[in-house]
Structure formats: C-alpha cells, structure tokens
C-alpha cells in the first residue's frame, strides 16, 4: 500500500493527495496517518513540485468531500436499510452495522460538536458522518464542523511529516496505538452513557 500511495502522490501531485484522502474516508483501511505525513515529507524534499500549504488544502478537500459520501446515505436511507446494506457489503469497506450504532450513540451524546471531535478520532472520523445524515443535520453546519475537525487532523499529520522528514512513518507507528486507546475510551464512554440513561429511565 505504501508504494501505491507514493506513486499516486508523485504522479498526480495535489490531485493525488486529494484522491487518496477521499478514498481514505470511503475505505477506512487506507490510513490518513500515512498519506498526509508522506505528503508533508514530499513537500519538504521537493518544494519545487509540492508546497506544504498546497498539500494541506489538497488533503482537506479530499477529506471533506469524502465525508459527504457517508453523510448522504444516512440522510436518504433509513437506519435499518443502511445497516442491512452495511452488513451485506461492509466487508469491502471494513465496517459493520455495529460501527454505525457506536457512531450514532457518540453523535447523540455530543450533538453537533460530535462531528468536530469525531473527525479527530480514527475509527470514528469516517462514520461520524452517518448519524449526522440520519439526524438530518443541516448541510452547512455539517460541512463547517467537518472542515474544522479535518483541518486540525490534516494539518497535524502534514506538519508532522514535514518536520520528521524521512522518518515520516513514525507518525503512523506511534499514532496507531494512541488511536486505539482513544477509540476504546470513546466506546467505554458511550457504553457508560447508555447504562446511565437506562438506570435513569428505570427509576422514572
């Protein structure tokens, strides 16, 4: 996968970065933690071909457009229908209906800011668009929070690759376990919130 990412960036430049980040949102196994640091490293080593600001905006564009791919199915399909489709074809995307349920719980707990926060959390950042669509979140609000969260994430990864230089792969190496810990904390928080609501309803 690394060789494919390198070839895409080298051959297509900014459009290649935007394409990769778009695909990263559609197919979660493609890691932004590798794409953007590599793009940042490329901007450092070949400034005549790519500059760090162009890399950042290309990554941001691909990330925001990719988020819309999950927003509209949530908006126009029922939750039951969407989960059925995901269970049937989700293996291709490495997601399941349970992932949608977790994202939905996170969204309803946090409200609109869930889109902003969710864009910073691997494992949640892609699917947070689904409950936003299911809840008919205003498109402009969705784009604003998505762009804001994506800008922080893309900017961090791009700058890390630019600073680390040839050691850009360390971003993915060290961020991966941190991401898993953050995802685990979010899942536990959502589970605790559900239990709290159930106890409250029982007392009522």
UniProtKB/TrEMBL annotation:
**Superkingdom in the source lineage:** Bacteria
Q: Identify the GO cellular component terms for this protein.
A: plasma membrane
Which UniProt key words apply to this protein? Answer: Cell membrane, Membrane, Transmembrane, Transmembrane helix
Annotated TM spans? 12-30, 50-72, 142-162, 174-195
- Topology with regard to the membrane? Multi-pass membrane protein
What the entry lists under InterPro entries is as follows: DedA_domain, VTT_dom
Q: Which Pfam families does the record cross-reference, listed alphabetically?
A: VTT_dom
Q: Where is the VTT domain?
A: 30-162
Membrane found in the keyword field = yes
Which compartment or compartments is the protein found in?
Cell membrane
Q: Which family does it belong to?
A: Belongs to the DedA family.
Q: What is this protein called?
A: DedA family protein
């Amino acid at each position: 996968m690394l060789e494919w990412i390198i070839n895409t960036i080298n051959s297509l430049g900014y459009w290649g970065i935007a394409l990769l980040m778009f695909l990263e949102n559609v197919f979660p196994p493609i890691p932004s933690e590798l794409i953007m640091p590599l793009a940042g490293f490329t901007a450092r080593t070949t400034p005549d071909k790519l500059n760090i600001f162009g890399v950042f905006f290309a990554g941001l564009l691909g990330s925001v457009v990719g988020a819309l791919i999950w927003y509209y199915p949530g908006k126009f399909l029922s939750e039951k229908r969407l989960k059925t489709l995901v269970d049937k074809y989700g293996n291709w995307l490495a997601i399941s209906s349970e992932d949608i349920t977790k994202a939905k719980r996170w969204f309803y707990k946090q409200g609109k800011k869930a889109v902003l926060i969710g864009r910073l959390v691997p494992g949640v950042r892609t699917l947070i668009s689904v409950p936003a669509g299911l809840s008919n979140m205003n498109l402009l609000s969705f784009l604003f929070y998505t762009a804001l969260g994506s800008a922080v994430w893309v900017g961090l990864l791009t700058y890390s690759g630019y600073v680390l230089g040839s050691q850009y792969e360390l971003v993915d190496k060290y961020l991966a376990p941190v991401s898993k810990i953050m995802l685990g904390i979010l899942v536990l928080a959502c589970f605790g919130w559900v239990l709290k609501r159930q106890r409250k309803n029982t007392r009522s």
